[in-house]
């Protein structure tokens, strides 16, 4: 199979971890006889340094012309980086929001599960962990507060800032459909998270989610208020299968869920549009404090590449092989510093990539 992949190394540890993910994809190609061609796309600080803006039209066109996009991470240290001297619409994060919108990536999938091998890193007590947990957060990504009208004004000498939170029923319906479809392939439960005791947008959210749920009688639906959900994630994470929520709540809850696993360096994510096209990136940030040190964990990006193989390229066997290779390296006791524990062997970014690549083999 011939595929065109747009690569966005980005900022901070981005280039290092994308380099390892590419190593894995190259190995997949040689083992399974595929040809992937790569085109690099600048986004975030890397684009500001070259073009003065965090995303260009050409970058969008290159991404659109690919079969899928694999990204590292963007952004720098807001206190020290000159990127944050720019006005907000020119900063690295604005580029990320713009590419999500331009590619219509409305569905952000963020799995959060407990690795058996990494149970020791989970900050929860054993009785809370129970049999472990395995959830996926389905976050609406192109609407809500992130994309509503905003401005800062001064009225009678008083500064005032306005952000608006809007959702129409079409935006709610399409993300709800994604969540129910995903739940159908998992444990068949959707927890829709909102703030319907306060917000109109949440009340509409609930109604539309219920209309969608009527089409999926085999799937259990529950509604949960976002503040309660934040508590439940640390109180009883095993209750969740698919969490469906709007943009801002999803941003916050997905960070919480990933922290609860104790291994944020392991968690992948996918942002999809209506077709098979998607942008794949680790759930973690650009970690500028450890950039260039060769110690970042590349596994989240490698697993994001596996998601890309599965969702955008229909290469399930290959995705299985990558996931199995990651599992094997963990079983062998190799760890990057973020997931290191007693008795394990600590290795750096490159060696982790090399070891995972070594284990990629055909199963048939
Ligand atoms: C994320 C990030 C982004 C977001 C930032 C970098 C704009 O936190 O992908 O969760 O808030 O969506
Ligand atoms: Mg976030």
From TrEMBL:
Residues holding substrate: 100, 110, 139, 227
EC number: 1.1.1.85
Source organism superkingdom: Bacteria
Protein name, entry field: 3-isopropylmalate dehydrogenase
Keywords: Amino-acid biosynthesis, Branched-chain amino acid biosynthesis, Cytoplasm, Leucine biosynthesis, Magnesium, Manganese, Metal-binding, NAD, Oxidoreductase
Gene source species: Candidatus Blautia merdavium
Residue(s) at site: Important for catalysis: 146, 195
Gene Ontology BP term (one): L-leucine biosynthetic process
């Amino acid at each position: 199979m011939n595929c065109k992949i747009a690569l966005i190394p980005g900022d901070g540890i981005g280039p290092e971890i994308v380099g390892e993910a590419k190593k894995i994809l190259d190995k997949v190609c040689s083992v399974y006889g595929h040809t992937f061609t790569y085109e690099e796309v600048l986004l975030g600080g890397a684009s500001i340094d070259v073009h003065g803006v965090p995303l260009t039209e050409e970058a969008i066109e290159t991404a659109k012309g690919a079969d899928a996009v694999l990204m590292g991470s963007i952004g720098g240290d807001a206190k020290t980086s000159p990127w944050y001297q720019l006005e907000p619409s020119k900063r690295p994060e604005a580029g990320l929001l713009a590419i999500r919108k331009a590619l219509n990536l409305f569905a952000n999938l963020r799995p959060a599960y407990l690795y058996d091998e990494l149970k020791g890193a989970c900050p929860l007590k054993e009785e809370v962990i129970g049999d472990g947990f395995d959830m996926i957060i389905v976050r609406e990504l192109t609407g809500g507060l992130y994309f509503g009208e905003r401005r800062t004004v001064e009225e009678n000498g008083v500064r005032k800032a306005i952000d608006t939170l809007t959702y129409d029923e079409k935006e709610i319906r399409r993300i709800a459909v994604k969540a129910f479809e995903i739940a159908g392939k998992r444990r068949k439960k959707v927890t829709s998270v909102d703030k319907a005791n306060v917000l109109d947008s949440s009340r509409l959210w609930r109604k539309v989610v219920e209309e969608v749920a009527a089409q999926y009688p085999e799937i259990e639906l529950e509604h949960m208020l976002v503040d309660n959900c934040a508590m439940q994630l640390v109180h009883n994470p095993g209750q969740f299968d698919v969490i469906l929520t709007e943009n801002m709540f999803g941003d916050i809850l997905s960070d919480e869920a990933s922290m609860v696993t104790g291994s944020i360096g392991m968690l992948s994510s996918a942002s999809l549009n209506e077709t098979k096209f998607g942008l794949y990136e680790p759930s973690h940030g650009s970690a500028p404090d450890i950039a260039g040190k060769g110690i970042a964990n590349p596994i989240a990006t490698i697993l994001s590449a596996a998601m890309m193989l599965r969702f955008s390229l229909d290469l399930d066997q290959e995705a299985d092989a990558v996931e199995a290779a990651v599992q094997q390296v963990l079983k062998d006791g190799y760890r990057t510093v973020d997931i290191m524990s007693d008795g394990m062997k600590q290795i750096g970014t490159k060696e982790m990539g090399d070891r995972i690549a070594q284990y990629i083999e055909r199963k048939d």
